Amino acid sequence: MNRESACARPEDQRYPAVKTFAWGLQHVLTMYGGIIAPPLIIGSAAGLSGEDIGLLVTAALFISGLSTLLQSFGLPFFGSKLPLVQGVSFAGVATMVTIVSGGGGLPVVFGAVIASSLLGLLITPFFAHIIRFFPPVVTGCVITVIGLSLMPVAARWAMGGNAKAPDWGAPSNIGLAALTLGVILLLNRVGRGGVTRIAVLAAMVIGTLAGVAAGKADFSAVFQGDWLAMPTLFAFGMPVFDSAAILSMFLIVLVLLTETTAGLMAVGEIVGTDVNGRRIANGLRADMLTSALAPVFNSFPQSAFAQNIGLVALTGIKSRFVVSAGGVILLVLGLLPVLGRVVAAISMPVLGGAGVVLFGSVAASGIRTLSKVDYKENMNLVVVATSLAFGMIPIVMPAFYDQFPGWVRTLFHSGISATCLVAFVLNILFNGKFVALAARGRAKTVNQG
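The chain above was modelled as a monomer; its predicted structure follows.
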């Protein structure tokens, strides 16, 4: 029997092991920079040594691999069984930096993450029941903004990744990003079958080789340090549960639940599979469970990685087992720091060049969904216009909400959560129960007249 034969669900497609792990490696390379950034930022704010920050990084890789496996492979009641990659979320970085800088230290951060994630686990049934309020006019807006909100990340990567570096924005950096992007476009234009599916991986290899030749990639530190490192439980002490810190993190958990719900719907739309309330609930439970377990392994909250949704859209590889292979690779990277150092040595402009087309693919998928929406004799155009505008505000003007209360900044500083909330509310107001009630009220008045 052909292992690549069609399955009842696109996400259940299986491929030979070599292809599966090669495509899984693409997912790891795509999201690696996003995974290691939060522990680097939080560890630096906590004043940790380089060795301790390295421990946070390997812990992030390990727990992200575990979370990705649970989400994609799935267990009863946990995991959506969709090709959705999980990783340490950026959404809570600012809040955790504030907690750690306020003298609480990492134990208070970890206590807040555990408690807030368990609270989030309790309310996942609520989020599972709101799926019926997410028609294409809502999901299309959210998917579009997921892609658009990631474009600044791609631009920063293309410029070098470090704004304080002397070569920040240098033509050599942007040229390396352009080379990587050009290889992806070329392989997609002239390649066939398997070639187009590994276009991103091949482009990253070629871009990295070019980076080495140009002095933009340094592999000299790969063999420095431990080769094997088993996870250390509570390496920074037992968690401390502070009520104010827990409340702050719970607001972040609400954002994570919203973003993961959007990610689940986005990948379902791209894959072309049914995403019902049960799958949403299973996906959110996996998200919250691994977020609650993350501090045990010295890591932080987990959420869906939007850039990998773009990879699914670009390559057409819809199999959840490919993503599971990526989860296995992340686990290995978390146990073998030497492999993690190899991946970390890849030049940021290379990632930036790949990010342009990956993130653009997500936005294009959202636009495709919006093209299916009926805009005649309804308020859908207003819903789309307003939702996209709210989603773009924090992208084009990051300081827009700086003078607002903390809970407003938390909910609206992310373009993804802002779009999701605005589109959700406006769709209910203009196209939902309130419109139906108003119509019945008008009809009753006419009949009485």
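The CA atoms of residues 374 and 380 lie 7 Å apart.
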